């Protein structure tokens, strides 16, 4: 089948979100054809280029989400009236405090999309004084929340600019029959802007939409606007909340990456019957040797792996380790990871200073050189040549975060057969599943007690590590991820109605013009089974359908 993969700030660019996951998915499903529709987030991302693409990627179309030059489209009087009506309805739905605005929001959104398609774009209109006045009128209208009614001109300008950026996908030329209208399934790799083209493909061409969320985009928008003015925060939260609800309502299937994301989707109105949890797939082979020989660990060593940033709460970990040292004087702590950004560099410096204060360099004698039991390292250094080597050196892997999505470092430790101690945040409990110890966040004493308990009980560490490895190999491998999406693609297609009218020999529409078998390789009914990817069987092809032949191979994979 033909998959339209929708991304934002990620694949196929060298740097970005979900790049590795998308690449593994596309390479793992070589029997399908992929069209990539990518929204970029910045000039640097575009300048760095793409990763090498496999042959099953037949098309890549990109558009910058970070900028939109005026396309020079001049709307006539009728088009300006249509835009004003639709945009007015959209911002009225955003500014109304009641919860019964879903249909109004959706009707206005698709109305704007139709204006953009008919007129060649909305870039100038979304930046116009008409849009700003419509937003101001909606904020002052009866029923608007108090925070919206009190919005001042700078705040209205900020909201209008954000709406213009968020609605840029409406002006793309991706939705014709030779674009997203020609794919069998649109697969959005995130909510928000990445899913908006999928909504429009569904609206214009009836293409079913699959939405995968490994991080909840709505939550990210809430956090990003946390420091904005109250009016800006309230209006943007309303807009993104209504957009997320529309995505969750229209998607054929939603695939959250964990129960945390699933709860967000259900809270926003997603139907439970259309939700399938699909865990991220990770490469297990590079940890296989360590996992099979789990007895090579250094008995008193704790290992922490991740990005160095405040959310990881290394301060609590260092205080917890101070308590561990009181019980186990020979214990050591390896902190392995790089700082991210200016904030991360400052936090790393603070943690180094705290470690030097809590653990003065120790020496066996007055003439010996001291050594600190806490080390800060990065992958690639002599003592940490690879992730597998780092996990192999530790008796226990520790996670101390106060905010966490899907805990990748815990899964890597599980592949290595290591016992873990982690804080109860994000999807940690769901991932661990009883194969490790979990403590409350920001509780150094509880973290220390759990670490000491495992350091003193090697048999328990071995049992937990073996159970963790078995669980990880069952749930979190690339293979299970690819198999899950392959099945979901077929499930969506089997329930998808025929989107093109195909006429039989008598000129009457065929009721089942595209049987499910048409999308699978193989000889199903002899020589007459040469099917067409966008129409139907060979005997049903004709002028009403533009089709391209599907390659037929022996057998079914």
Secondary-structure blueprint:
Elements: E1 2-8, H1 19-28, E2 33-40, H2 43-48, E3 57-64, H3 77-95, H4 102-119, H5 123-126, H6 129-140, H7 146-149, H8 153-166, E4 185-188, H9 196-205, E5 209-213, H10 217-224, H11 230-250, E6 253-256, H12 259-267, H13 288-292, E7 298-305, H14 314-327, E8 332-336, H15 341-358, E9 374-377, H16 387-393, E10 394-399, H17 408-415, E11 419-423, H18 428-432, E12 437-439, H19 444-455, H20 458-475, H21 478-495
Parallel strand pairs: 1-2, 1-4, 2-3, 4-5, 5-6, 7-8, 7-10, 8-9, 10-11, 11-12
Helix pairs in contact: 1-21, 3-4, 3-6, 3-11, 8-11, 14-15, 14-19, 17-20
- Report, as a whole number of angstroms, the end-to-end distance: 14 Å
Annotation field: number of helices:
21
Please tell me what the overall shape is: globular
Task: Give the rounded overall mean pLDDT.
Answer: 86
Question: Which band does the percent of strand residues land in?
Answer: 5-15%
- Class of secondary structure makeup: alpha/beta
The protein's oligomeric status is single chain
Which residue ranges are poorly predicted, with pLDDT under 50 across at least 5 consecutive positions?
A: 523-557
Characterize the biggest β-sheet.
6 strands, parallel
Q: How many beta-strand runs?
A: 12
Please give the order of strands in the largest beta sheet.
Answer: 3-2-1-4-5-6
**Helix content bin:** 40-55%
Gyration radius from CA atoms, angstroms: 27 Å
């Amino acid at each position: 089948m033909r998959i339209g993969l929708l991304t934002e700030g990620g694949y196929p660019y060298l740097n970005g979100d979900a790049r590795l996951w998308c690449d593994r998915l596309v390479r793992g499903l070589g029997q399908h054809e992929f069209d990539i529709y990518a929204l970029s987030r910045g000039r640097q991302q575009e300048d760095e280029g793409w990763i090498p693409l496999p042959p099953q990627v037949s098309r890549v179309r990109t558009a910058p989400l970070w900028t939109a030059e005026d396309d020079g489209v001049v709307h006539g009087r009728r088009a300006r009236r249509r835009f004003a009506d639709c945009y007015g309805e959209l911002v009225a739905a955003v500014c109304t405090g009641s919860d019964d605005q879903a249909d109004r929001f959706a009707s206005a959104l698709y109305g704007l999309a139709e204006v953009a398609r008919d007129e060649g774009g909305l870039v100038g209109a979304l930046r116009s004084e008409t849009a700003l006045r419509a937003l101001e009128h909606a904020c002052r209208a009866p029923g608007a929340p108090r925070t919206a009614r009190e919005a001042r001109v700078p705040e209205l300008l900020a909201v209008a600019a954000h709406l213009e950026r968020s609605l840029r996908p409406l002006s793309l030329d991706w939705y014709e029959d030779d674009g997203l209208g020609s794919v069998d399934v649109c697969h959005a790799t995130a909510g928000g802007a990445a899913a908006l083209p999928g909504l429009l493909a569904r609206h214009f061409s009836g293409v079913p939409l699959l939405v995968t969320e490994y991080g909840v985009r709505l939550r990210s928008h809430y956090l990003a606007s946390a420091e904005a003015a109250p009016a800006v925060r309230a209006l943007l939260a309303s807009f993104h909340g209504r957009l997320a609800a529309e995505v969750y309502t229209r998607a054929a299937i939603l695939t959250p990456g964990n129960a945390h994301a699933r709860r967000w989707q259900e809270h926003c109105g997603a139907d439970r019957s259309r939700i399938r949890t699909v865990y991220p797939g990770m490469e297990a082979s590079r940890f296989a040797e360590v996992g099979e020989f789990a007895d090579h660990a250094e008995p008193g060593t704790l290992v922490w792996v991740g990005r160095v940033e405040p959310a990881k709460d290394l301060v609590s970990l260092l205080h917890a380790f101070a308590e561990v040292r009181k019980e186990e004087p020979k214990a050591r702590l390896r902190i392995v990871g790089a700082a991210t950004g200016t904030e991360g560099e400052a936090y790393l410096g603070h943690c180094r200073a705290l470690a030097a204060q809590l653990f003065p360099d120790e020496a066996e004698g007055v003439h010996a050189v001291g050594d600190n039991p806490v080390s800060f390292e990065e992958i690639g250094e002599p003592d940490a040549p690879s992730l597998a080597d780092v996990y192999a050196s530790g008796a226990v892997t520790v996670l101390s975060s106060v905010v966490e999505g899907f805990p990748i470092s815990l899964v890597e430790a599980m592949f290595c057969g290591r016992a873990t101690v982690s804080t109860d945040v994000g999807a940690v409990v769901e991932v661990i599943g009883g194969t490790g110890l979990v403590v409350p966040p920001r509780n150094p004493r509880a973290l220390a007690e759990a670490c000491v308990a495992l350091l003193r009980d090697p048999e328990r560490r071995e049992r937990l590590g073996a159970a963790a490895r078995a669980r990880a190999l069952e749930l979190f491998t690339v293979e299970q991820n690819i198999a899950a999406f392959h099945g979901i693609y077929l499930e969506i297609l089997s329930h998808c109605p025929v989107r093109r009218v195909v006429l039989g020999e008598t000129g009457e529409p065929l009721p089942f013009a595209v049987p499910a078998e048409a999308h699978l390789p193989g000889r199903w009914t002899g020589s007459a089974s040469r099917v067409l990817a966008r129409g139907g069987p060979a005997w049903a092809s004709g002028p009403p359908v533009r089709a391209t032949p599907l390659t037929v191979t022996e057998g079914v994979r």
